[in-house]
Amino acid sequence: MNICMAHRGWSGKAPENTMTAIRLALAEPAIRGIEIDVQLSRDGVPVLIHDFTLERTTTGRGLVMDHTLEELRELDAGSWFNERFAGERIPTLEEVLQAVKGRCTLNIELKATSDMYPGIAEKVLELLERHEMKQEVCITSFDHDLIRQVRELDATVETGLIVMGRPVLMLEQLEAAGANILSMGYPYLTRELACEALEKGYKVIAWTIDEPSHIRTVMSWHPDVQICTNHPDRMLEFV
After folding, report:
1. Catalytic residues
2. Are 182 and 161 in contact (CB under 8 A)?
3. Alpha carbon 234 to chain centroid distance?
4. Which of 87, 138, 190, 223 could form a disulfide with 158 if both were Cys (CB 3.0 to 4.6 A apart)?
């Protein structure tokens, strides 16, 4: 049965990467995974936000990394989506872990390069250790070196490479990074690659699929392909 993964929480119904979006996803038992984006505040606290800048999804301006947690928490992260979400705050990763523990798998995307946020891997792993959640999450990133770093720090945590495009030697790149998950933009993922990866023991996540016909097509490739979507309700019609 294809796993339904809510992209940035249930971001079709609530502001992405907020506690409301997370709670909406948790309230639907058929949603078995939640994807979130993590960066560091200026004072080194892992927080949920996708863009490196604040303008699109908050009332702030400038780079996320230039603001302390206290400054980030003062921002409105909901009004841009709909006025009824005014007052929604940027959550910390720790808040999300506390909400999700024992209820759902969490896909933590590190929105960084290893040089941009020194220590981000250690800080995330420290929180997972503290909350005893290393077996309930996977850590993914576009940055291969960062994923390799995570694996070197703790080989027990599942890791994945995020890919937009169709590079050659894709499975070899997974092996080189020590990753066991291929997270690929669905326009570039093929039935053949998905099935080959699954046969070799890798997990496969297709993102971000919102068109029902595309969801149905990718689901038909293999029951173990995970579907990451902003609109889980559109996928659940087929489950």
Report:
1. 7, 50
2. yes
3. 19
4. 138
Distance CA 116, CA 124 (A): 15
DSSP characters for 93-128?
HHHHHHHHTTT-EEEEEE-S-TTTSTTHHHHHHHHH
What distance in Å separates the CA atoms of residue 126 and residue 74, rounded to the nearest whole number? 26
Q: Which residue, 169, 172, 197, is CA-closest to 183? A: 197
Count of alpha carbons within 13 angstroms of residue 43, beta-carbon side: 8
Taking the model in full, what pTM does it have? 0.98
Across the range 91-107, mean pLDDT stands at 98
Pairing verdict, β 31-40 and 46-48: antiparallel
Is residue 215 within a helix (H) or strand (E), and if so which, with residue range?
A: helix 212-221
Task: Kindly report, residue by residue over 167-224, the tens digit of the pLDDT.
Answer: 999 999 999 999 999 999 999 999 999 999 999 999 999 999 999 999 999 999 999 9
11 close to 82: Cβ distance less than 8 angstroms: no
H helices of 154-190, in order, are 170-177
Which element (helix H / strand E) includes 184?
A: strand 181-185
